[in-house]
Structure formats: C-alpha cells, structure tokens
Amino acid sequence: MAHIVILGAGYAGLGTARKLAKIAPSDTKIDLIDRNVQHVESIKLYQVAAGTAQPDEISFDIQSVLPANVNFIQATVTKVDYENKKVEFSDHEDLTYDYVVLGLGFRSENFGMSGADNYSYKLQDIPTAQKIYQVINSNIRNYKQSQDPNDLNIAVCGAGFTGIELLGELIETVKILKAKYSVPKINITCLEMAPQILPMFDSKLAQYALDFLTKNGIKIMTGAKIQKIEPNAVVYTQGESDTEQRVYANSIIWTVGVSGSDVIKDSGFDAKRNRIVVTDYLNIADHPEIYVVGDDSASMDPKSGRPLPTTGQLALAQANVAAQNIVADIKQQAQKKFVYKSKGTVASLGPNSGIAEIQMTNPHVKLKGKMAALAKKFSFEQVLFEVGGLKGIKNN
C-alpha cells in the first residue's frame, strides 16, 4: 500500500488529491494537509481587498469537495525531511510518506525592499485582503477629521496581474466611498518598474487596459523604480535618473511579486525564491518520490528557457499530470512528460470590463470590454469545477 501525502489544498494540491482519488489503486492512502479548513480562490483575493466581495464568496470548505478516499488533516507544515521521507508539523505528529506532493502555495515577496513590510500592505490571503480594504476605508472616512490629503491617496506598487485587477476593482470602490463619506476626489496611483503593463498580452489589448484605467482616473507610472517605502510615501526613481521622487499616500498596497512557501527554504531544498526546478515529470531529480506543483514549482518553458508563470491554470494542469505520474510509478509503468498548453489569459478590469486572449483557437481570439469580463467569469467557473466539482461551484 502506497502512502501519498499532499501538502497544501490550493489549486494544485486539491486538484492532485481529486485526480488521485479517481485513478490510484484502491489500497492507496491519500492524505491532504492544509493549515486552513477553507480553500480560498486566490485569483479572486483582489475583490476582497477592494471590498467588492466577502471572504465566503471566494472560499469553500475543503472537506465538502473531497472524495471519500481522501483524508483531510488540518495541520501546519514546518519542514519536509526528504532524506527520511518524513513531514514535520508545528501542531501535528510527524507523517512518513512514500510519495509527497508539495503544493504549499505562495507568499508575497518584498525583494528586500526597505519599508515594504512595515509601511505597505501585502495581498496574499484573506486576512491581508480584508486589512487592505479596512485601511482604505478607514483613511477615507478619517479625511474629514484629519484634513490630510494623503488619506485620499492610494498607491499600488506593481502592475502585474494582481495589481491591475485590483486597480480595476478599486474604480467602483472609490466611487462608493467618495459618496459615502462626502470627500473630495480620491487619487489612485500605480508604480511599475517595467516600461509597459501586461506584456503577456497582445500590445493592443494591453493598451486597451492602460487606456481604460487612465480614463477611469487611475494614474499608471511605468518605468518607476521603487527605492523604498516610507510611512506615507513610495520613493522611486524614473528612467535613468537617480533623483528620488515620492508618491504620497496613506494607503500603500504591495503587489510587486510572490515567491513559493518558506517551507521550501526551511527544508533545505535547492530553490530560487522558494521555487524548485522540477523534471519533465514534475518531480525532483535527486528525489523522484517528491512532486512539486503550483507556486512552489519551477516548470521550465522549453521555448524561453525560463520558468512558466505561476497561474491557477498551470497549477491544475500540473496537478493532473503529477497524479498520473505517481500512479504510474506505483504500478511500475512509464510516466508522461508534462507539456503545458495555455488555454489563454484573461485579466479583469472591474466587474464589467477586461481583456482576454483565448489560445485554444487559431488564430487566437482577442476580447476586450464586456466580452472579456464574461470570459473571466467563465474561466473562474471552470477553475471552480476543476478544484471542487459541482460542489465547488455550488458553494460559491
């Protein structure tokens, strides 16, 4: 009897567990472990941060969607002792395994930026998302008493996917808060080091997103290299200049980037930004019984030679293949190589707009505005079905 331990019940971990439940030999023991009892749709965290969704709208009970042959354990992982095939926890007895799947998710990465941890708010889970909205709401409410113009200023650091989707959602949020508290104009500024936003999209779609955000009052500053975060300001330099400038705001949100779980580092794995380079079969070369999926995994793109960007879509694709390869190994059969084919990319610009590039057709279908918003909704429902089946959709 093989014992499979899956660490993390995000997209990758939950997807692996559900697939294994269908295809693993009947005597296989499958344990799924997470420190939380709720699965969080992390691709929707920006809505909680903007106050347009409640936590229970983007989460569901993990055990409610698990097949009967998957055992769920609520516990906090501290280390994987890969030499002894053992997982250590802070609040549970150690577990030994025959196979282990690392899918522990991500954490916000500050890249050693001075002041980022102390003076900005990271978006990485439900508590931090709730805190962001609380800070924005509190500062705007406080303006009438403080008369501090920075209470009406919001700075978003980073114009990646998370930053852009948060900006789109904040468009409606600030309209509501402005009317609610009868305050002057609320200013939103986004600082991005790259020369353009959303480079993964067709240039015309990226320009549409930029124009949409600008038209709705958001200032996008590209080529802005953040130097440090102060209590009420983002310090940056522009272009080749070394002259420090500031964007003043009492609500500073950090969406610059993410890394894998610190458990990867604490376990002594060879990794960069807590992401482990995996083989074509999604395991570790020196320890083939260890599979790594989702945000902890660095699957290399054969075309670019760089790791594939971590997305929910990629995590679910990895989960499917990792599960198949574990079962193949149990049965002493040939494993399959992981070959990733993106279905497309969708970015929300608020509830009624967005941009999308669907890659399942030739030529690719490019959408913008309301049609892209509908594509985003469809893709979200598809992800819900893959991680939770019909129960996952019903729970949301």
Folded structure, characterized:
The protein is an alpha/beta fold. Helices cover 32% and strands 27% of the residues. It has helices spanning 11-23, 45-49, 116-119, 126-146, 161-181, 203-215, 262-266, 312-330, 370-395; strands at 3-7, 29-34, 38-40, 59-61, 70-74, 77-81, 86-89, 95-96, 99-102, 106-108, 121-122, 153-157, 187-192, 218-222, 224-230, 233-238, 245-248, 251-254, 258-260, 276-277, 283-284, 287-292, 297-298, 344-348, 354-358, 365-368. The chain has a six-stranded mixed β-sheet with strand order 5-2-1-9-22-21, with helices on one face. Strands 11-18-12-13-14 form a five-stranded parallel β-sheet. A hairpin with a 6-residue loop joins strand 25 (354-358) and strand 26 (365-368). The radius of gyration is 22 Å and the shape is globular. The model has no long low-confidence stretch (mean pLDDT 93).
Tally of alpha and pi helices: 9
- What is the name of the CATH class of the largest domain? Alpha Beta
Quaternary assembly: single chain
Give me the count of strands.
26
What is the terminal-to-terminal distance?
A: 36 Å
Layout of SSEs?
Layout: E1 3-7, H1 11-23, E2 29-34, E3 38-40, H2 45-49, E4 59-61, E5 70-74, E6 77-81, E7 86-89, E8 95-96, E9 99-102, E10 106-108, H3 116-119, E11 121-122, H4 126-146, E12 153-157, H5 161-181, E13 187-192, H6 203-215, E14 218-222, E15 224-230, E16 233-238, E17 245-248, E18 251-254, E19 258-260, H7 262-266, E20 276-277, E21 283-284, E22 287-292, E23 297-298, H8 312-330, E24 344-348, E25 354-358, E26 365-368, H9 370-395
Helix pairs in contact: 1-8, 1-9
